[in-house]
Write a structure and sequence with these properties.
By secondary structure, the chain is an alpha/beta fold. The chain has helices spanning 60-68, 82-92, 104-116, 131-139, 156-161, 185-193, 220-225, 253-262, 270-281, 283-306, 331-340, 364-377, and strands at 47-48, 99-102, 122-126, 143-147, 167-173, 200-204, 229-234, 247-250, 310-312, 318-322, 343-344, 346-347, 356-360. Bound molecules: 4'-deoxy-4'-aminopyridoxal-5'-phosphate (PMP).
Length: 384
């Protein structure tokens, strides 16, 4: 017979305990992340511009490495991702001991929350900062403080103003998804200078490789100089390995040590590690992809503006476009209209940006298609 250690709780008719096992408080208050759609009813050529994936796919070397990994499917991966950390360290000039790899940078963001947030703590992010931060923090019983932005750009003073004595983590995507806006190195330093040293500043540089502005710094310099800064990176964007789920972080030894203690022992597959090494080794591919993005983004920006649409200047591989609040032209309607014609873009309701659609910069033919369709939809304006 099992003897209860304490008296059983009194149940009321609406007590959820009577409904069976319940997750920890707060979990059911989380709205699950909804990724970009990938299917449409259209039966012709479909263009997916909804998830900021690589316009040029992956490096052929990465594809070959992935195929070769089929030879060792029965074997567990290297739990320490040694070769991959060494390759990242070589390319970025970092110490491999201060790196950790994860199943996407999403996993690393989750590990940071699991490692540093407990019930009643909070994390800070900007109003339209990447939503995974909030989901990961809430899953750990934390609250999320959203700091107002200025013109859809993170505001350092507002972020600092959102910090209180229970803040443990502050997340900043730089450039940010979905806005595409970014902060220069001196602004990030000012943000760091305003934080207590028991708060971790997480610089999410998922789109760093698309940047070409001298005032930008992805975060490594700040990590090197301080004990409370972590930079996260991904192979899902310019490296084109989204399907493999591969990301990494560079951080102070004490934080990397904590994350290593709580991660799964084999959290990154052999296929992902092998493809990651080859992808990192092919920097010519990265340059080609960046050049494609820079020129295509400029064309898209100009043509969309020419249609009379308001477009947020973006440093990433996507553009956030505002649609008029008029019947037939609203973001939701345009989204559905494009879907019916085989073009998938992203609605922004989850970010509270209901008037906006986010359009990834894709291969040239996909970009032309969405631009031509939008020109058909907004014919009144003079397109250049
Ligand atoms: N950070 C930002 C800002 C992102 O946009 C994304 C992907 N949408 C991620 C992190 C997560 O990337 P992954 O888990 O694929 O590495």
């Amino acid at each position: 017979m099992v003897v209860p250690l304490s008296p059983p709780p009194l149940l009321s008719t609406d007590d959820p305990v009577s409904a069976g096992p319940m997750p920890r408080p707060g979990v059911l208050a989380i709205d699950p992340y909804v990724g970009g759609k990938s299917k449409t009813v259209f039966d012709g050529q479909v263009y997916k511009l909804s998830s900021n994936e690589s316009a040029l796919g992956a490096s052929p070397h990465a594809v070959d490495a992935y195929r070769s990994a089929a030879d060792t499917l029965a074997l567990y991966p290297d739990g320490g991702a040694t070769a991959l950390r060494e390759k990242i360290a070589e390319i970025h000039g970092l110490d491999p001991a201060h790196l950790i790899c994860g199943a996407g940078s999403d996993e690393i963001l989750q590990l940071l929350c699991r490692g540093y947030l407990t019930d009643g703590d909070n994390s800070v992010q900007s109003a339209h900062g990447f939503l995974v931060y909030a989901l990961a923090a809430k899953a750990c019983g934390a609250e999320v403080h959203f700091a107002p932005e200025t013109d859809l750009r993170a505001d350092v003073d507002a972020l600092l103003g959102a910090v209180d004595d229970r803040t443990r983590l502050i997340f900043l995507a730089n450039p940010n998804n979905p806005t595409g806006t970014w902060l220069p190195a001196h602004e990030i330093e000012r943000l760091h200078d305003g934080l207590r040293n028991d708060i971790i500043l997480v610089l999410d540089a998922a789109y760093a490789e698309y940047m070409d502005d001298k005032a930008y710094e992805a975060g490594a310099a700040l990590v090197k100089a301080h004990d409370n800064v972590v930079m996260t990176r991904t192979f899902s964007k310019i490296y084109g390995l989204g399907a493999l789920r591969l990301g990494w972080a560079y951080g102070p030894p004490a934080i990397i040590d904590a994350l290593n203690r709580i991660r799964g022992p084999f959290n990154v597959s052999t296929a992902a590690q092998s493809a990651g090494v080859a992808a990192m080794g092919d920097q010519a591919f990265v340059r080609e992809n960046r050049a494609h993005n820079t020129s295509e983004r400029a064309i898209m920006f100009q043509r969309l503006q020419g249609l009379g649409l308001s477009v947020v200047p973006s440093a990433g591989n996507f553009l956030l476009v505002r649609f008029p609040d008029e019947v037939g032209s609203r973001a939701q309607e345009v989204h559905a209209w494009l879907m019916e014609r085989g073009v998938i873009v992203r609605t922004m309701d989850a970010y509270g940006l209901t008037d906006y659609l986010r359009i990834s910069v894709g291969p040239s033919d996909a970009n032309r298609r969405v631009l031509d369709l939008l020109t058909e939809k907004f014919p009144g304006e003079s397109a250049p």
